[in-house]
Amino acid sequence: MTGALSAAGLLPDVAGHFGRYGGRFMPEALVPALDELDAEYRHAQADEAFQAEFSRLLRDYAGTPSMLYDATRLSDAVGARILLKREDLNHTGAHKVRNVLGQALLTVRMGKPRVIAETGAGQHGVAAATACALFGLECVVYMGEEDTRRQALNVARMKMLGAEVIPVSSGSRTLKDAMNEALRDWVTNVATTHYMIGTAAGPHPFPAMVRDFARGIGVEARAQCLALAGRLPDAVCACVGGGSNAIGIFHAFIPDESVRLYGFEAGGDGVETGRHAASISGDGGVGVLHGARTYLLQDEDGQTRESHSISAGLDYPGVGPEHAWLADTGRAVYQPVTDAEAMAAFERLCRTEGIIPAIESAHALAGALRIAPTLGTDPVILVNLSGRGDKDVQTAGRFFGFLGEHA
Amino acid sequence: MSVAPAFEKAKADGRGVLIGCMPAGFPTVPGSIAAMRAMVESGVDVVEVEFPYSDPVMDGPVIQRASEIALAGGVRTRDVLHAIEAAAQAGAPVILMTYWNPIERYGVDRFARDLAAAGGAGLITPDLIPDEAQEWLAAADRYGLDRVFLAAPSSTDARLAGAAAASRGFVYAASIMGVTGTREQVSASAPRLVARLREVTDLPIGVGLGVRDSTQAAAVAGYADGVIVGTALIRCLLDAADEASGLDALRRLATDLAAGVRHPQRS
Asked: Which chain A residues have a beta carbon less than 8 Å from that of B100?
């Protein structure tokens, strides 16, 4: 019932609530911009010309629908049929291109010449810079100072694409602080600027809007699975940081009660160590961060705690509000996957299938391998391979000892 | 103790109310209490205690830095309540400016109860809009607390009316589009925002974001009921070589600002 409501587009409510989650916890100064965005988005949803243009870009520019790949060598070793949704083959190397193309189209419709974005590892920053180059929009990307050093190649990519990259030196100097700084820019420049949030989080309408731009992943995968396997999958697995790739692949399956949905959060060193990014499945609790009520990592007094993960893309102390709601209703199950488990799955996919996944996506794969024995005989498991691992070669190379610490 | 009597008295005296901000726990808990007392002794009418928060998205570098220092010093919610209680004993109403999550974590009703017990007047909530505030509105009613919502130049007339209707004590006019403490002066949009608010409310209106000296304070007091100063006061302590010289600088600036609001410049 609850799932059907969501799938029918009835969730969130008009104010952006998924049950008790979501909403708008934002400065009043930004509310008119959020209202404008919400109205523009609603018009665009109903506008055939917008949808046709979005579809054309997804097909001709981004390279979707992405393939569904029957990973037979991996499957043989696991005792489950693993189907990989190859979002890693999209232009810019991840599912994120879907969201930025949608938001760039909206930015143009709103007549705003400038885009700001936050980025952790740089994947959303690169995607945003790409979309802005394509549409001739000015692009400013906020990135934690710490991350600009760890991800110097992505900084260079963004600059090549014409974006300005601003290192953020406040707070913990990572993704959450980049988001704080982007919000400060937005409240100052909101008349000319669209804030292109990179995940299905933040104030309404972002969680629903980003979900809808990404939900093609699940729509495609559902049809592809039916065609390839002749039936729906037993389980759908995705990694969850903010949660855009996960909600993107889950959403079309929510009404399919036989399909189990699994979100795998970054367990870092293990949730028991406190060094992790598992907002739902760790020791977070419900609160308000970056515009929405959701699960987040916080201390006893409601101060945000720093997150930890080998995967920069999952290294965020909050999570999109729809995931909080799916977790509470039990429609989706969230579990932590440690750095070590993710890297073991990373290596396994490299060696069995010749595919180097993003470390984020390796969390989804590790989770799939974990749950496979619980799904009965010959289960079909759909895994969202949300991004490719080119960006992670340095991190993984060090982890496996192929590169020195200073490489 | 509501802030309302402070506004009524100032109005009767033909002057503006000076609202001075200080983060609890900055530079230490006792240091922040000393600063709040110094502000009251120097003519600040209402103390706005800031709740240090890990993600202050509405604040510029000065308040961010002060908040970081307070948090690094280990300030806790109970310390914030303690600072409010101590400042209230200095004789001026004390109102708390807070991002929402620390209140939600403590429990909205429980916090309202403890704030009232500490002698706090109420809350200013920069990231809580009336649309999401049902629980707080009820708790504020239960404990007789002021609730101050923000109005912005970008707000529609309907939203200004909504913010004013939900507010008690005064309405906070965030006079420029931006974060705290980053502009040289209050923008020209401030008088216009205040005029728009006057159309929809009889509540006093406080103007914040950008006031640094008595001239600006006098100018703002010419059209608004309250002049809110944060960054400039906090900078006195942040830039000082030691606590004593910081308090001296703070007293000098507060005295100067207090003179400003006593000579409103009506244009």
From this structure: 25, 288
What would the two tokens of residue A101 be? 């193309």
Residues of chain B that touch chain A, judged by Cβ-Cβ distance less than 8 Å? 53-58, 60-61, 64, 68, 71, 76-77, 100-106, 126-129, 131-132, 149-156, 159, 163, 174, 177-179, 182
ipTM reported for the complex, 2 dp:
0.95
- The answer to whether residues A305 and A299 touch, using CB atoms and an 8 Å cutoff, is yes
- A159 as an active site residue: the answer is no
Q: Tell me which residues of B are annotated as active site.
A: 48, 59
A239 within 8 A of A264, measured Cβ to Cβ: yes
- Which parts of chain A register pLDDT below 70? 1-10, 405-407
The dihedrals phi and psi of B211, each to the nearest 5 degrees, come to -80, 130
Q: How far apart are the C-alpha atoms of B108 and B89, rounded to whole Å? A: 24
Query: pTM for the complete prediction?
Result: 0.95
Q: How far is A336 from chain B (nearest CA, A)?
A: 24
Measured in angstroms, the CA of B263 and the nearest CA of chain A are apart by 30
Contacts B156 to A, Cβ<8 Å: 32
Torsion-angle region of A248 (φ positive above 0: left; ψ -120 to 50: alpha; else: beta) = alpha
How does pLDDT run along chain B (267 residues), one tens digit per residue?
Answer: 799 999 999 999 999 999 999 999 999 999 999 999 999 999 999 999 999 999 999 898 999 999 999 999 999 999 999 999 999 999 999 999 999 999 999 999 999 999 999 999 999 999 999 999 999 999 999 999 999 999 999 999 999 999 999 999 999 998 777 777 766 555 678 999 999 999 999 999 999 868 899 999 999 999 999 999 999 999 999 999 999 999 999 999 999 999 999 999 987
Round to whole Å and give the CA distance between B51 and A302.
11
Helix (H) or strand (E) holding A6: helix A2-7
Chain A residues near residue B97 by CB distance under 8 angstroms: none
Cα dihedral across residues A322, A327, A332, A337: positive or negative: positive
Interface of A with B in 230-289 (CB under 8 A): 285, 287-289
Cα separation, A86 vs A70, in Å, equals 10
Q: Is A255 exposed, middle or buried (0-12, 13-18, 19+ CB in 10 A)?
A: middle
Q: How far apart are CA B137 and CA B157, in angstroms?
A: 21
Residues of A in contact with B104 (CB under 8 A): 287-288, 293, 302
